[in-house]
Amino acid sequence: MPRKKWPIFLIAGIILCAVFGVVLAIYIGGSYVVNSSAPVFAYDQSASAQSGYTRKTLTSEDTTYESDYAEYALNITGADNSNLVGRVVEGGDIYAIPGQAPSAYVVLWEFMSPVGVFRNSDHPAFDWRTASFYEIRFSSLTIATATPPVSKDSVNSQLIQDVLTSLKDGEIVSPSQVSGDVESYALYLYSGELQGMNYCAGVYIDAAGRVYLAENTISQEWHLAGPLFSRWAKLP
User: Residues 188-204: pLDDT tens digits?
Assistant: First the structure.
């Protein structure tokens, strides 16, 4: 390449860097203005009344959101951060969940990841035992590391009922009673009461092929799964 053309490329590069810097500054500045105008919440953590869990709260004046045992298994189904509800002094932004009124549920994000779903303390907690579910989705707990990854769903009402019956009344087994390697999975349950969210139960399959269900993915109370779900979970 002729040496005389280098200054042109250098100048073009400098101009592009300058334009990028200006755009970035405008974006950050605009984001700061939006965030600085949003209500400020204090974030706190304390021991939950439920052993093994942590209660997290977001508080601003007379408004309190909490994320405790009942919210642990709740997940958002999208990443629509278009409705900012507030910001956290310690860092993080609070967004409305599409399909849910902010007076009921919000989600806290830090950087690019959701911290968790928070429920307004004045709103009743979601009770999976009395809820109606129309779909389940069975998935590897961590898709990126699963070999091979698993993902399948069903709207079969009998299969869904088999899951719920096992979680409510199935024989309880402690993880310490299960020997050998155990494969861990997630079972997402979808309900009309959880617009924009789902409920995530834990699924475990031991070396002998026995299948267990748990209310969430850290529960130490595993329930023996029923025959319908046990067979379906092990199918390709």
Answer: 999 999 999 999 999 99
Beta strands in the chain (DSSP E): 40-47, 54-60, 63-67, 74-76, 84-88, 93-96, 105-110, 113-120, 133-140, 151-154, 172-173, 183-191, 197-205, 211-214, 222-224
Please state the pTM of the whole predicted model.
Answer: 0.81
Whole-number pLDDT of residue 53: 95
Higher-pLDDT residue of 162, 62 = 162
Residue 21: per-residue pLDDT: 43
124-132 contacts at long range (C-beta below 8 A, 24 or more positions apart): 125/70, 125/71, 126/70, 126/71, 126/74, 126/193, 126/194, 126/199, 127/70, 128/73, 128/164, 128/167, 128/189, 128/199, 128/215, 129/168, 131/191, 131/193, 131/194, 131/199, 132/191, 132/192, 132/193
Token output for 76: 């958002």
